[in-house]
Amino acid sequence: MPHDNPATCRVLFQPSGLKTEVPRGATILEAARRAGVYLTSICGGDGVCGKCKIMVNEGEADAPPTTLLSQKEIREGIVLACQARVRSDLVVTVPRSHTLDTGRILVDSDAHRFSEMAGEDVGQGAFPFDPLVRKLHLTMSPPNEQDQLADHERLYLAIRKQYDAPHMQTGFRILQQLPAILQEAKYDATAIVAQRGDVAEVVDVEPGDTSGCNHAVVVDVGTTTVVAHLVDLASATTVDAEATYNSQMHFGDDYIRRIMYAEEHDAFDEMQHRIVSDVNDLIQTIAMRQGIELGCIASVICAGNTAMIHFLLRLDPRRIRKSPYVPTAGWIPPIRAAEAGIRINKRGLLYCLPAVGAYVGSDIVAGVLATRLDEAEGLSLFIDIGTNGEIVLAGEEWMICASSSAGPAFEGSGVKHGMRAAPGAIERVTAREDGHLAWRTIGDEPPRGLCGSGLLDCLAAMLEAGVIDRTGRFTNPEDPRLREGPDGLEFTVVPARDDREPIVITQADVANLIRSKAGVHAAIEILMQTTGTEADTLASVYVAGGFGNYLDVTSAVTVGLLPDLPAERIHFVGNASIGGAKMAIMSRQALAKAEELAGRMTYFDLMNHPDYMDAFTQANFLPHTDIARFPSVRERLAGTDAGS
Amino acid sequence: MPHDNPATCRVLFQPSGLKTEVPRGATILEAARRAGVYLTSICGGDGVCGKCKIMVNEGEADAPPTTLLSQKEIREGIVLACQARVRSDLVVTVPRSHTLDTGRILVDSDAHRFSEMAGEDVGQGAFPFDPLVRKLHLTMSPPNEQDQLADHERLYLAIRKQYDAPHMQTGFRILQQLPAILQEAKYDATAIVAQRGDVAEVVDVEPGDTSGCNHAVVVDVGTTTVVAHLVDLASATTVDAEATYNSQMHFGDDYIRRIMYAEEHDAFDEMQHRIVSDVNDLIQTIAMRQGIELGCIASVICAGNTAMIHFLLRLDPRRIRKSPYVPTAGWIPPIRAAEAGIRINKRGLLYCLPAVGAYVGSDIVAGVLATRLDEAEGLSLFIDIGTNGEIVLAGEEWMICASSSAGPAFEGSGVKHGMRAAPGAIERVTAREDGHLAWRTIGDEPPRGLCGSGLLDCLAAMLEAGVIDRTGRFTNPEDPRLREGPDGLEFTVVPARDDREPIVITQADVANLIRSKAGVHAAIEILMQTTGTEADTLASVYVAGGFGNYLDVTSAVTVGLLPDLPAERIHFVGNASIGGAKMAIMSRQALAKAEELAGRMTYFDLMNHPDYMDAFTQANFLPHTDIARFPSVRERLAGTDAGS
Fold it and tell me: Which of B144, B331, B355 is nearest residue A324 as measured by Cβ atoms?
């Protein structure tokens, strides 16, 4: 018996040929980690993301039932690596697609956008290319009896020949190792020099010329989604990107609930551990995919809402949720990334963009930086729609900002077939003449669900097609586009095909989406009302958020998310948090500007505003109780049931 | 038997009443440390300094023979605590004198000198009082819903109301603890703010007003002697001082031997441990004596020769002794004192003054700063005589410096009855009309030996009295002032009295002292020759060193240590290394000036100069082979045997 049922099993991964042994009963995901095979696992092994599909070619693996695999896949021997347990020696095949494509597709389109707007073109744009971290290749003459300059001063002199650094500092451990490094390298070495405010710190010194390998990770630490981009600071380009759900989601959808949970269960360490692990997983994924050693990543820059940044750094976030609603810090000095548990070069630095306050975080400051809202002519508006909706209204001399709770519906959470913007997500939906819908997925992959932009398009299309009325209710239970599903009536976006379930939108989904857009719209309305601004005087509206790579402005206006303005005044800017943070890591001047902006933005407390709830209630219609505010929508809906 | 001979013994210390238990056989010094009773122990427990005298009132302690106690003391039950081993339960009495007086006497006179010259009067002198470390008492209004500034920014705002700090930084651990500290303290707190270059770092935040307690330790890390002063930065005064022999002396008298030893025995850690322990012992001694907690000491500033600073910080000193003779660092950034093992406030900083190079250390830069040599009119000379003799010659536009190996004779080492400048040291010797000598000791204590200034006076007096000739040889073995001692002929300075041995100078001592002064004089000569300077054009000569609190300029000229100049042009400035370091900790501008000076001082390599050995040989006379260079000495010696 023990012979047939060994305590440890061998697992061979194809096509890499990597092998390992694991205890019988371990998951294939564990085996993969041990073997050094990277499998995408967005949900962290909870069996809910369906990303870690793997094919079992030989041997036996127990896999529990799942709806994430089609019957065809199951027949082919495909299992979820995080769920399937090793029962015997195995030979498994890792599909090429999911080790590579996921990230690559997102990057290509994303990098494209940021090359137009911020990121790598920082040098041609508003700010000079002047990165926070430089790798300087130094060829020094070795000391001799005619030139007895100390190693440390010799290093400084060589650095200053290439880089204007009036104030310098050296890590003590580096100073201790310096003679050995320089002598071994025959005084041909590379210094990693990182700015801490006005001081340039020699973070590390490496033998030879490693200046070509200077990477930074740019992270948007969102409540629902965590996104990381890898930037090559040597060539000023974005190399790769990856995203994952924030694994704190187990403890609550929004950050207020998570702070409460952490406080009740003394779980601040656990909260930090989760988000730091998410960031580390993203970094490791990208580094492995690109074949880059962690030592080559000398900096991380983070933007995010204030609570997330507090969790990440284990700063006390408790008074963010209770009076007087203050953070521990809005401005956070650069620290060693290792101090926060983030694994890059062990002496590398972690930068955080500055926040305005408890409810307007560094992600919003990054967005204002990326869109250069402070330099826009006339009135302009910046809207970032994530789990919260933050709004910045800028005049030529002032900037006022506010936050509303949007909920994570547009990030694909709390919606039955919602998903984040990843391959297979339906990102665009249009009504065909036959009344049915046409759709397009990210990466042209088979559809797996709907991301934010797709959901918004659906909502607009359903309204225009009369499937729902302006309150969001299904108008006619007998409508052939509807069907009775397990959660009541549902609208079919993608019919069942092969062995796959149909992709649908339920009545509850519609209500969630309307609530989300209403929160944002009400915030815009109160901010404009308070500043005496009329919607049609807005010269520019910038919309940022995790909708995906694309947002249909007409749909956003149709459902009443955005004010009814000519389409050319509305600009979708994608993940502006990443965009602004990327500008800051690439330009000291951009970081300095971000600090100035954070100081100039005035926070406006919506929640205590007497009219906010009214405005929210009125916005709980499509597009709004008062359709006269949306003349273009009224026109489009004329003749439909909704228009009446 | 075991009953009469217990494995552990109790020791009660009077008058404090502190008790402890130690294993039988432990020394009383160990028992004192365990009980928290501080006993002065300059030699670190080697039984050579005679400082740790203690009286055994009850019980039995084994003490080996020693010449450091008089028979009267032995009869009274006095033992050396470092040598006496506990054999039974003991009651011992700690004499009041040696826990208190030692330091106090040195301080009083020393503080006096520095209040005239540098240190506390830095504010009235060349530099404004602007200490590197400040404790700022901050009374902040707690946040409320109308004032939601983050704790960190609130702290910065409060600091900037009192202190001009455009660039600030906060330690990450402090940031994490900040909300708890501020809330507990009801926003009434004290920030310790330390300059790191242009950046003001918030080193710590303490509840309430602790601004009155802001101490710094100023350390001169010498090859033979380590001196520490405690400075109260709140009141800008020197509070106390203490000195000890460098316990690396076991590994060689000079730093070149110690580097060789460390290299051969891989003993760099041990070297660091020794010197760090010396510094920690000094700090602890002073802190206990003054009743100051280590947490109140937020900074340490060190000056010393380059090798000592390298040992202290565990920087590689190996190429200081071999070609190309370069240090690891001349300029050392501020680090956390704890990183080097120095025990003060656990987040406190360690500053080092900058050095010129391998052989001209930060002690010399400190001396140039203290004497403001760079601002002197005309030609001036700075001489620091320690284990090495360093010389700086300054014109109005230039400064050139050199180092010669003087040997530790003037610090009391390598001379039979030499000792460092401590209570009981004969610091001044004059010839009486009867041909015998009059002397004065530090603290007017019974004489225990001769410090540098006393030795110099003796040498001059012996020459003038014809006891020695100009080669240093005893002229007449029958001279009644000489006697045959265990080491050959010796000159009696203090005859035997009570049970004490006489204090004498041997023929070998004379030779050692002449070699020391010859090294220094030859260095001066070569430097002046190289720059085409005549001795009589020197407007000022500043002499620094561990001679004691006093130096007789005429004696120094008589033996040929200094050029023959009018006495009013020669200034004895004591421990200028401590003086300059004290200026730097009290004034950012002084530290900046030190950095500028270190950059401006040109190192001149004496050892490879073809004429140096000749000059040294010629200086191996009293005052010199060519007495014509010393007209005043020739005149004084006229009519004596030596003058012929």
Answer: B144
- Angle, CA B178 vertex, CA B175 and CA B183 arms, to 5°: 165
Q: In what order do the strands lie in the sheet with A503-506?
A: A482-485, A488-494, A503-506
Mean pLDDT of the A108-119 span? 38
Q: Please state, in angstroms and rounded to a whole number, the distance separating the CA atoms of residues A104 and A118.
A: 20
Residue of B nearest to A144 (CA): B324
Q: Which two tokens stand for residue B625?
A: 């082979």
Q: Which of A155, A157, A305, A328 to mutate to test the interface with B (most CBs of B within 10 A)?
A: A328
Is B150's CB within 8 Å of A357's CB?
yes
Nearest residue in A to B338, CA atom: A172
Instruction: State the pLDDT at residue B214.
Output: 95
What length does chain A have?
A: 644
Pairing verdict, β B188-196 and B199-207: antiparallel
Give CA–CA dist A494/A318, Å, rounded.
44
How far apart CA B152 and CA B57 sit, in angstroms, is: 58
Asked if residue A303 lies in contact with residue A578, where contact means CB atoms within 8 angstroms, the answer is: yes
CB contact under 8 A, A332 and B198: no
- pTM of the complete model: 0.81
Whether pLDDT at A7 is above 50: yes
Tokens of A231: 């930037």
**Which chain A residue is nearest to residue B339, measuring alpha carbons?**
A172
d(CA A417, CA A409): 11
**How many Å from the N-terminal Cα to the C-terminal Cα in chain A?**
75
Residue type for position A418:
G
**Measuring CA to CA, which residue among B31, B21, B35 is closest to residue B83?**
B31
What is d(CA A550, CA A456) in angstroms, rounded to the nearest whole number? 11
Q: Tell whether the torsion through CA atoms of A454, A459, A465 and A467 is positive or negative.
A: positive
- Identify residue A580 by its one-letter amino acid code: G
Contact (CB, 8 A) for B391 and B379? no
Nearest to B323 among A145, A170, A179 (CB): A145
C-beta of residue A118 within 8 angstroms of C-beta of residue A580: yes
Of A211, A163, A170, A167, which is closest to residue A188 (Cα–Cα)?
A211
User: Which residues of chain B are under the pLDDT cut of 70?
Assistant: 1-5, 36, 38-51, 67, 96-125, 548-549, 640-644
- Look up residue A444 and give its DSSP letter: G
Rg (CA), chain A: 26
Mutation test of the interface with chain B: which of A148, A154, A169, choosing the one with the most B Cβ atoms within 10 A? A148
Asked whether A216 and A299 are in contact (CB, 8 A), the reply is yes
Angle at A392 between CA A391 and CA A395, to 5 degrees: 145
What is the distance between the alpha carbons of residues B349 and B68, in angstroms, rounded to a whole number? 39
Interface test with B, best of A145, A175, A203, A356 (most B CBs within 10 A): A175
What does the longest C-alpha to C-alpha distance in chain B come to? 96
Q: What is the DSSP string of A162-227?
A: HS--SEEEE-HHHHHHHHHHHHHTTTEEEEEEEEETTEEEEEEEEES--TT--EEEEEEE-SSEEE
d(C-alpha A262, C-alpha A268), whole Å: 5
Q: Is the dihedral of CA A312, A316, A319, A325 positive or negative?
A: negative
Which of the two residues, A282 and A406, has the higher pLDDT score?
A282
Q: Which residues of B touch A325 (CB under 8 A)?
A: 145, 148
Give me the interface pTM, i.e. the ipTM: 0.80
Split at pLDDT 50, 70, 90, the class of A107 is: very low
- Nearest CB partner across the interface for A150, out of B144, B170, B329: B329
- For chain A, give the longest Cα–Cα distance: 96
Closest by Cβ to B175, choosing from A153, A328, A358: A328
